[in-house]
Amino acid sequence: MCHAFLTDANFYQLLTRIDESIAEEVRAGGCRCGGRLHSARYPRKPRGLRSALDASYERRLSFCCARDGCRRRSTPASVRFLGRKVYLGVMVVLLTALHHGLTAQRRRRLIEQLDVPAQTLWRWRRWWRERFVQSRCWRALAGQLIPPLVSDRLPGSLLERLSGSALSERLVELLVLLSPVTTATGSLRVGGNPQRM
Ligand SMILES: [Zn+2]
Questions:
Q1: Ligand 1 center to residue 76 CA distance, Å?
Q2: What is the 3-state composition of the chain as percent helix, strand, coil, each rounded to the nearest 5?
Q3: Cα(24) to centroid of ligand 1, in Å?
Q4: In the 8-state DSSP scheme, what is residue 41?
Q5: How far is the CA of 25 from the centre of ligand 1 (A)?
Q6: CA 184 / ligand 1 centre spacing (Å)
Q7: Separation of 77 CA from ligand 1 center, angstroms?
Q8: Mean pLDDT score of the chain, rounded to an integer?
Q9: Could you tell me the distance, in angstroms and rounded to a whole number, from the CA of residue 177 to the centre of ligand 1?
């Protein structure tokens, strides 16, 4: 199995373009109050394979209502940033998709490269098992899957169900499906300190 995409800047640029098109839809829709949305991106320092990431990864796309007295923030869904986790969404998915993501060897190497503490991996697995399965996003998704998916093997069981022929394609599909959990409206109440995840 070849995982060259993980260090390929094009792969990450594709994710940025998807985020930009999701954001453009949100911006065009305007604020709930009818006001116009202005860009109000906020800084991120995602942990991933930094050498493959361009400057677009230092900002999460977000908007703020321009109308005085509202100023409501709208943060579009993202295929890059999985909520407030400090690692890129793609890394969280790959490193927890036990059997249907990376080979064991590649996975070990990636954990070393990214210097992911064992405790973080454990927290991510628990997040899939306990939090993600409670999310509106998952409930909507699960209802469409025939036959039903084994939720205790998430996200691997979902990854293997997708149609892309290459792992990179299936990952992009999966990140798009998961993106509703990255917004306030589709999100879950993450307990503990999500910043540390
Ligand atoms: Zn507004």
A1: 15
A2: 50, 10, 40
A3: 17
A4: -
A5: 16
A6: 16
A7: 18
A8: 87
A9: 27
- Which class for 107: exposed (0-12), middle (13-18), buried (19 or more C-beta within 10 A)? middle
Question: Which tens digits make up the pLDDT trace of 130-185?
Answer: 999 999 999 999 988 888 888 888 999 999 899 888 989 999 999 999 999 888 65
Dihedrals phi, psi of 6, to nearest 5 degrees: -65, -25
**Is residue 9's pLDDT more than 50?**
yes
Altogether, the residues listed in the chain come to a count of 197
Ligand 1 centre distance from Cα of residue 120 (Å): 37
Would you call the peptide bond into 147 cis, given omega within 30 degrees of 0 as the criterion?
yes
- Identity at 116, one-letter amino acid code: V
> What residues flank ion ligand 1 with Cβ within 5 A?
31, 33, 35, 65, 67, 70, 72
Distance separating alpha carbons of residues 130 and 148, to the nearest angstrom: 18
Nearest to 175 by CA among 85, 45, 69, 105: 85
